Amino acid sequence: MFEEECRKSLDKLCPSQQAFDRTLAAMRLEYAATPRKQTERSINYKMNNRKFDFRIATAVCAALLVAVSIITGVMLSREKPGLPDTFEISDSSRLKSVRYVEPLENEIITYTLWRDVSELKITDETDLIAKVKIEDMREVEYEYTAVFEYEGERAETDHVGNGTLLQLSVEEVYYSADNKVKDTIVAYSIVSSRGMYLESPRMKSGDEYILFFSSTKDDVAQRDQFSDYIIRLPATASFWAKSGTKITAKMSEMLKFNCRLLGIDESVAEKGNMLDEALRTMFKQ
Amino acid sequence: MAENLNSCDDNCELILTRNAKTVYRTAYLRVGNRYDAEDVMQEVFMRYVRYRPEFENTEHEKAWFIRAAINASNTHTHHLSARREVPLEDDVPAPDPAVPDDELLQAIMRLPDIQRSVIQLYYYDGFSAKEIAEILGKSDTAVRIILTRAREKLKKIIEEERRKDQYV
Predict the structure, then answer these.
(1) Is the dihedral of CA A54, A60, A65, A66 positive or negative?
(2) Which candidate in A173, A177, A227, B142 could, as Cys together with A87 as Cys, close a disulfide (CB 3.0–4.6 Å)?
(3) Neighbours of A137 (CB within 10 A)
(4) B63 pLDDT band (50/70/90 cuts)?
(5) Shortest distance, CA A253 to any CA of chain B (angstroms)
C-alpha cells in the first residue's frame, strides 16, 4: 500500500519536454566535440568489474590473510632493526605549500563523499606523507548527527557512516607537519569495500603504500578517539602508490601540478617513472 | 566525425529516454526544485557523453545514472552554497510551477537527503537494500536503519500535517 502510494507520488516528478529537448541537443553537441577519452577504458574496467570485485576481493583477502600470517610468523622470528619512536624531518617548511591535490577522475567522483567529508571536517592540509604498510584493517560503522552549514540543508540529520580503520606501520616519512610520527599509526578512511567509488583502491593487508594523511583535528575521528590520522579522499586515494607503481598519464598531470606548486622540475613526474621515487624526490627537495 | 554524430543520434535519445526520469527524480529529491533538477539532469547526461561508460546491463546503467545524479546534485548544491547569492528584491525567483501538490511527496521532501534517496531507490526504483548499499556506498545495515527512520519520520510528518489541517 505504502509502496504504491510512494510510486504514485514520485511518478509525478517528470522533466519537462523542453528540458528533455535541451539536454538531447547538448548531448549531441558534446558528443561531436568530445573525443573518446583514454581514461575511459580504465573507468569502464573498474565499473564493469565492480560486481565480481567484491566476491573476488573477499577470496583474495582471505588468501592474503593466510599468506600475511605466514609471512608475519617468519618475519617475527627474524631480528629486525627497530624503528625509532619518532622521525625527525629536516627543513620541511617549504612543503607547507602542498595543501591539496586534485583528485583523479574529478568529474566522476566529485563530492561522492562530500557530505561525509564535510561532516568529518577533513582539512585540505596534508600533515603527513609516508610510506606505510597495512598491518591490519577493518570496516567500521558509526552514527552521527550532521549540522550542515550550507543553505537549504536541514540540520541535525541522522547519518550512518562507514569506512575503514587501518593500523599502519610507518616505514618512511617524506613529510610531517609536526616532525613527530609514531612507528605505528591508526588511520581512518571513508573508503569502504562496499562503496562504489571509482577511485577506491583495493586495500589489502600487508601491502605497502605511500599515503597522504591529515591529522584528526576537531572531527568525529578525534572526538571518538578512534584514529590518529585520516586518509584523505578522494585526493589521497589517487595517490595510493604501491611500491613499484609506475606513473600513469593522469598521475603525471597531478604530480606536475604539485611540482609547479613546489617550484620543482616537472621531469620527475614524467609518465613511466616510478611513483614512489618521484614522490620521494618531490618531497625531499 | 560523421560516424560519431550518427551513433549519437542513435544512442543519445535512447539513453536519455530510458534514464531521464530516473535522473530528474533523483536530482529533484536532492536539490528540491525543478530548475536546479533540470540543470543537474543536463550535467549528468553531459558526463555520460564525456565518459561514455559501457554498461553490463540495464541495472548497471540505471545504477550509474543514479550515482551520477547524486554526485552532480551534491556538486550543484555545493556550488550554490559557495556562491552565497543574495537575490535583489525585484529579482525574486518565480515560484516553481512544477512542484506537485501531493501530500506524500511534500512529506518526502521534508526528509533528509539520504532518507529521500533511500525511499526513492527502495520504493520507486525497486532496488534491494543490498543494491542501494552499493549505489550509496553504505552497508546493508545502514540502509535498513535509514529506511526504518525514513518511514517513521514520514509517518510523523504526515500525522502532524493532518492534525494541523484539522485545526485549520
Answers:
(1) positive
(2) A173
(3) 19
(4) confident
(5) 18
Phi, psi of A142, rounded to the nearest 5 degrees: -150, 155
Helix axes A17-33, B2-31, angle to 10 degrees: 130
Cβ–Cβ below 8 Å for B50 and A113: no
Answer whether B100 sits within 8 Å of A40, measured CB to CB: no
A27 vs B16: CB contact, 8 Å cut-off? yes
SS3 A89: coil
- Rounded average pLDDT per 10-residue block, chain A, 285 residues: 78 85 83 53 33 53 62 43 31 28 26 29 56 77 50 48 75 72 78 43 67 63 58 47 69 71 78 79 62
Strand stretches in chain A, DSSP E: 128-146, 157-176, 184-189, 208-215, 229-231
Pick the CATH number of B99-168 from 3.30.450.20, 1.20.58.460, 1.10.260.40, 1.10.10.10: 1.10.10.10
Compute φ and ψ for B14, nearest 5 degrees: -65, -50
Q: How far is CA A26 from CA A32, A107, B130, in A?
A: 10, 17, 35
Residues constituting chain B:
168
Q: Is the peptide bond before A234 cis (omega within 30 degrees of 0)?
A: yes
| pLDDT greater at residue B33 or residue A228 | B33
Q: What ipTM does the predicted assembly reach? A: 0.76
What confidence tens digit (pLDDT) does each residue in B96-113 have? 555 567 788 888 888 888
CATH among 1.10.3470, 1.10.10, 1.10.1740, 3.30.910 for B1-85: 1.10.1740
Contacts of B48 (CB under 8 A, 6+ apart): A27, B15, B65, B68
Query: Is the CB of B20 less than 8 angstroms away from the CB of A15?
Result: yes
- How many CB pairs below 8 Å do chains A and B form together? 190
Q: Contact, B115 vs A129, CB < 8 A? A: no
Nearest CA in chain B to A1: B123
Beta-strand relationship, A184-189 and A157-176: antiparallel
**Closest residue to A40, CB basis, from B28, B51, B134:** B51
Cα separation, B137 vs B131, whole angstroms: 10
Pick the residue of A11, A27, A104 with the most B CBs within 10 A to test the interface with B by mutation.
A27
Q: Which three cell numbers, joined as nine digits, stand for A275?
A: 611513483
